[in-house]
Design goal:
about 210 residues, DNA-binding, eight-stranded antiparallel sheet, two-stranded antiparallel ribbon, globular, alpha+beta
Length: about 210
DNA sequence: CATGGGATTGACT
DNA sequence: GTCAATCCCATGC
């Protein structure tokens, strides 16, 4: 099965963010079962705007962002979560697509095992990967995956499945940021139950 | 070297 | 609706 080549990512980050919708993230950890899911939500980040880590320039933290396209940029958020991005644009330009939600495909039982229980109630399937911190936990992606080649793995991204050739994509503003909040650089599959909250205004909220 | 701030989540009022 | 958990790293002295 093929994976997306580096050339796919060496383009304007907004294009890549739209076209990654419907593609498949697959992760085979060294000691665990493979898991995968269809990308249903992304956000674009680019060095030209202050919400992007690369806005601060080349530092140890942003080294991966300025490196070759088609690599994984994984960083720790709020001291707790690992967030997974695909590095885009030509080498030397700091830009990436944040993968915000997946529709689980393979290894769903493994995802339940990694996500465990939330308080008193069991996690629902549409909540397994409905957020950038949730999906890395469900797949087992860790900080050590930062800089990994998305073409070679262990984190891989595969082209759109036939049933996802023309996903209906809606845009909105990005989530959880305090700078450049007006940019509508978030992309979601319209009506998909696995998209994270809050849903874009343009998106009719599917039932729980 | 000390400090402060998150591209979040889950629990709780 | 509010809030704490928790750690990497950027910044400033």
């Amino acid at each position: 099965m093929q994976t997306l080549p580096p050339d796919f990512y060496a383009r304007p980050v907004l294009e890549v963010a739209r076209e990654l919708i419907g593609c498949v993230v697959e992760y085979v950890p060294g000691d665990g079962s493979p898991t995968s899911g269809v990308i249903v939500e992304t956000e674009a980040y680019h060095e030209c705007e202050p919400a992007c880590h690369a806005f601060a320039g080349l530092t140890p933290r942003t080294r991966t962002l300025f490196g070759p396209p088609g690599r994984a940029y994984v960083y720790r958020s709020y001291g707790i979560h690992a967030l997974f991005n695909a590095v885009c644009e030509p080498e030397g330009v700091g830009a990436a697509v944040l993968i915000r939600a997946l529709e689980p495909l393979d290894g769903i039982e493994q995802m339940y095992a990694r996500r465990g229980m939330s308080g008193n109630g069991a996690v629902r399937e549409q909540d397994l990967c409905s957020g950038p911190g949730k999906l890395t936990q469900a797949l087992g992606i860790e900080l050590s995956d930062n800089g990994g080649d998305l073409h070679e793995g262990p984190v891989r991204i595969r082209p759109r499945a036939p049933t996802w050739c023309e996903p209906n994509v809606v845009g909105g503003t990005r989530i959880g940021i305090t700078k450049a909040v007006e940019l509508r650089w978030r992309f979601c599959v319209a009506g998909n139950r696995h998209v994270s909250r809050p849903r874009p205004l343009a998106m009719a909220s599917p039932p729980d």
